[in-house]
Design brief:
The structure holds two protein chains of two kinds.
Chain A lengths: L12 H22 L2 H19 L4 H21 L11 H28 L4 H24 L3
Helix pairs in contact in A: 1-5, 2-3, 2-4, 2-5, 4-5
Chain B lengths: L12 H4 L3 H10 L3 E2 H8 L3 H13 L3 E8 L2 E8 L1 H18 L4
Antiparallel strand pairs in B: 1-3, 2-3
Classes of the chains: A mainly alpha, B alpha+beta.
Keywords (chain A): Membrane, Transmembrane, Transmembrane helix
Protein name (chain B): MarR family transcriptional regulator
Organism (chain B): Thermobifida cellulosilytica TB100
């Protein structure tokens, strides 16, 4: 096997930094290709759509029942572009974000559902903001992590 | 990561060459990546990419296999365990240079 390994590289810190930056840019670009911005928008629209519907006294369960499969279908269509075995690895961070995000969304929707009849529809407003923040926050965290060279 | 880990002993000329570092960076993200996707990300021709992939395959860092998708045969690339270890050691070596621990 041909293999070259140096123990005394001639790189300057600036050159090494440039190489690391190049790697980060490559990983960031690839992550963006696998996760185009509109997939985050789908998540955010779905998560915000439910409390928004409740705020306007529209039955949000319809959005949940219809929006879920539609959104999932859109995401699956996006993922098929990458083909088999190109899914990113799910590590501790991803599982944690998924668990926390799910709890926050469910907690918000449950709070709104129980508080709205007694406190008014305005209780849905912080749920809309929180759900949107969950979708965008998770996306930002994962994009930032994806940029890391290794 | 201890200081002893942040040394330049993991510096790898095979991986550091232009485009090969980026190939390893792409493959480190997922299990397998299609050749055409890597080519698109790097913005190089298929022949140039093939040359770099061959070097990495010969070094034991990358494996490739053919699979059919949408009725077309395609090539999929992935890092071997050795390749992933070498790539990460190389990244650690670069960081050590940047941080002045060389």
């Amino acid at each position: 096997m041909e293999r070259e390994q140096n123990t005394s590289p001639q790189l300057t810190p600036e050159q090494a930094q440039a190489a690391l930056r190049d790697v980060e840019q490559t990983r960031s670009s690839y992550y963006s290709e696998l996760n185009p911005w509109w997939t985050t928008l789908v998540f955010a629209a779905f998560l915000c759509g439910m409390p928004l519907a409740a705020f306007f006294d529209v039955n949000w369960t319809a959005i949940a029942v219809l929006g879920g499969p539609l959104g999932l279908g859109a995401l699956l269509w996006a993922s098929r572009r990458t083909g088999p075995n190109t899914e990113l690895r799910f590590g501790a961070l991803q599982y944690t974000l998924l668990a926390v995000g799910t709890l926050v969304v469910i907690g918000g929707m449950a709070s709104g559902h129980f508080l709205a009849p007694t406190h008014g529809a305005w209780v849905w407003l912080p749920v809309i903001v929180t759900n949107g923040a969950v979708a965008l926050g998770i996306d930002l965290i994962l994009r930032r992590k994806a940029r890391k060279a290794a | 990561m201890s200081d002893t880990d942040l040394t330049t002993s993991g510096f790898n000329d095979t991986i550091h060459a232009p485009n090969r570092l980026r190939i390893c960076a792409l493959l480190d993200r997922g299990e397998e990546v299609e050749f055409a996707v890597v080519q698109k990300q790097l913005g190089v021709s298929a022949s140039v990419l093939s040359k770099h992939v061959s070097v990495l395959v010969n070094a034991g860092y990358v494996r490739q296999h053919r699979a059919v998708r949408d009725t077309r045969q395609r090539v999929w690339l992935s890092l071997t365990d050795e390749g992933r270890a070498a790539y990460r050691a190389h990244i650690a070596a670069l960081r050590a240079i940047v941080e002045g621990k060389a």
